[in-house]
Amino acid sequence: MAALLALFLSVLVLPSVNQWFTTQMTFNIISDGQLMLFIPFLVIVVTFLAGFYPGLILAGFQPVLALKGKLSQQNIGGFNTRRVLIITQFAISQVLIIGMIVIAKQINYSKQSDLGFDREAIVLLPQPSSLQVAKTLKNQLLQIAGVENVALCFAAPASGSSWNTTPRYNNNIEEEVFRVSVKAGDEDYLKTFGLKLLAGRNLFPADTVKEFLVNETFAKKLNLASPLELLGKNLKINGNMSGPIVGIIKDFHDQSFHQDISPVCVFTSPDLYSTYGVKINLGNVATTMAAIEKTWGKMNPDQVYHYEFLDDHIALFYETEALMLKLIQAFSLIAIFIGCLGLYGLVSFMASQKTKEIGIRKVLGSTVGQILWIFGKEFVRLISVAFILAAPIAWWLMNTWLQDFKFPIEIDAWVFGLTILITLAVATLTIVHQSLKAALVNPVKSLKSE
Predict the structure, then answer these.
(1) Phi, psi torsion values for 190, nearest 5 degrees
(2) Which of 19, 69, 253, 437 has its CA 20 to 30 A from that of 244?
(3) CB atoms within 10 A of CB 209
(4) Residue 328 class from Cβ within 10 Å (0-12 exposed, 13-18 middle, 19+ buried)?
């Protein structure tokens, strides 16, 4: 019955799963031979795993005690097994919850931290035309109400499309031992993307490579006492691109938080421009975007128009982490649900075992709250033991995962506190009905129970 229900639910939720995880999975049990073999195999294995322990217990009954009706909990066993299973279930749930919180926190930190440049309200458009057409379109885009700045460039300051090369500094014969991230952009590159100029001046308009801007990390790689020492020095990259360093820009994250900040150089090179960076005003985005599309289409009638917001582009850096977060969220809900089923079964079992005890306590004056604590202290104890097991495991797992980031978050104590509160809250909701039912029963009925 469970297998049939699972098949039905699988077919039902598959479209949502495909949409959630951007997959294209199909479900066809008739044509999928592996699935046809797997389902009966799964039924057999689960049946065995679920039934072998009760089978062993039943096989170990002493017939004399069974026939005399003298079997006790000690004879039957199982209560401690229930506890172990519930502790295991909630330990798994708590590990997943801690992982979910840490991953979400790291993703939010990566998305919301200051990257050293402006990523809000910047639209990236393709530049498929000649340089003359590109400059004309740039001027037309600047005439649109709602467009604040436009830059022609190879790519945004942080982009998956990166170009790295070994520089030659100050006319040295030998190339440097580090590689520099190359950014081609016109004189409006800094203003459009909000890059901060610390010293020197901006690039002058030019149709060739004539001068360079470099970042602070470039100076650190050269072991210079101050970035100001770079000004006026000659820089040569890619064998034939040469010119003086005219400005120092503040460090910015040119890649995801998985990598360190790279040494960067920015220069004008119209032959390399393939992208428009358009800074827009968020006051009337729909009208502005429609005007941009119309203007772009007039200048590029044979090209397909498409655009991308810079913040969406940066979010792609963390696509794997976002998918992992979705998976952990799903598995956390499933693990918590299974743990609650076990806890509900345990409380139901306790209620039936303690029926007379509850009746006697009520006759002697125990309140409903005191009766509820009989059940409450049991599940608090189990969840606390589960947390003691889960916390160090989760801490080790997430610290290992965070080592993949050059700019990781700290795992704060509140993450563990929130996890135990969530678990206790869910457990309380699970057992409250059965506990209240046992606590409110008429003591006369309780004392008559066998």
Answers:
(1) -65, -45
(2) 253
(3) 21
(4) buried
- Cβ contacts of residue 106 below 8 Å, gap of 6+? 321, 402, 405, 408, 409
* pLDDT given at position 68: 59
- What is the Cα–Cα distance from 365 to 103, expressed in whole angstroms? 50
Give the helix/strand (H/E) hosting 234. strand 234-237
What's residue 445's pLDDT?
A: 61
Amino acid at 391: A
What is residue 182's three-state secondary structure?
strand
Sole residue written with tokens 């008429």: 442
For helices 368-402 and 319-353, what crossing angle results, to 10°?
150
In this structure, the number of other CB atoms found within 10 A of the CB of residue 447 comes to 14
Q: What is the pTM of this model?
A: 0.80
Please give the Cα distance from 285 to 293 (Å, whole number). Answer: 12
Three-class HEC string of 413-427: HHHHHHHHHHHHHHH
pLDDT, one tens digit per residue, over 266-280 is: 999 998 899 999 999
Whole-angstrom distance, CA of residue 398 vs CA of residue 324: 13
Cβ atoms of 427 and 384 closer than 8 Å: no
